[in-house]
Design goal:
The complex is a heterodimer. Chain A is built from no helices and eleven strands. Chain A has strands at about 5, 10-15, 20-25, 30-35, 45-50, 55, 65-70, 75-80, 90-95, 110, 115. In chain A, the strands form two sheets. In chain A, strands 2, 4, 5, 6, 9, 10 and 11 form a seven-stranded mixed beta sheet that branches. A four-stranded antiparallel beta sheet of chain A has the order 1-3-8-7, with no helix packed on it. Helix content of chain B is about 0%, strand content about 55%. The interface between A and B is medium-sized, with 27 and 23 residues.
């Protein structure tokens, strides 16, 4: 069964360092997302990406964050200068099968990348 | 009022019990309703998806949507210890398709 894969599974970094989290979405999906989940809290939307550009973003997704789909398969989330409060599990998701009538929002999630900022 | 409200639990039941999990929401624009299951330190896994009001059944799981009351439910019949997880409701609007998640309800099924 196709799945979303994420790397690394866990990254520890110092405050102020840049971090790149990588995702390979399901191959025939068109919409890509990043969510985060701070320990014990709800899953929060960060950004969605469609047709090689950001389609929506939340208030959390400020100038420190960027996303990219550099090669048609990988989908990356970059945090330019990490803060302590960026410590969380970051989930990549994809949806929207090519050729479907509409994107209903059935997201398929990866296992997550745990980011620890010290 | 939060857009999606979900009691975090924990909800502890004996094996074989019928489990009822619920969410309420405030935004009448939501049209697509989903339930995800999340095991500890794993990504959410899509369990059920429904569009608009009505029921949908899949094995031991039944999802219900009552748009008039802005209330959705997930029922689990013959619950098993392997059902122990956090259950997240999520919903999205037509045109946006960005699911908004509830906090999740922690379910513990003990043998």
């Amino acid at each position: 069964e196709p799945e979303v894969t994420q790397t690394p599974s866990h990254q520890v970094t110092q405050m102020g360092q840049e971090v790149i989290l990588r995702c390979v979405p399901i191959s025939n999906h068109l919409y890509f997302y990043w969510y985060r989940q701070i320990l014990g809290q709800k899953v929060e939307f960060l950004v969605s990406f469609y047709n090689n550009e950001i389609s929506e973003k939340s208030e959390i997704f400020d100038d420190q964050f960027s996303v990219e789909r550099p090669d048609g398969s990988n989908f990356t989330l970059k945090i330019r200068s990490t803060k302590l409060e960026d410590s969380a599990m970051y989930f990549c998701a994809s949806s929207g099968i090519q050729g479907a009538l509409e994107n209903t929002g059935e997201l398929f999630f990866g296992e997550g990348s745990r980011l620890t900022v010290l | 009022q939060k857009e999606v409200e979900q009691d975090p639990g924990p909800l502890s039941v004996p094996e074989g019990a019928i489990v009822s999990l619920n969410c309420t929401y405030s935004n009448s624009a939501f049209q697509y309703f989903m339930w995800y299951r999340q095991y500890s330190r794993k990504g959410p896994e899509l369990l059920m998806y429904t569009y608009s009001s009505g029921n949908k059944e899949d094995g031991r799981f039944t999802a219900q949507v009552d748009k008039s009351s802005k209330y959705i439910s997930l029922f689990i019949r013959d619950s098993q210890p392997s059902d122990s997880a956090t259950y997240l409701c999520a919903m999205s609007k037509g045109g946006s398709y960005i699911p908004t998640f509830g906090r999740g309800t922690s379910l513990i099924v003990h043998p």
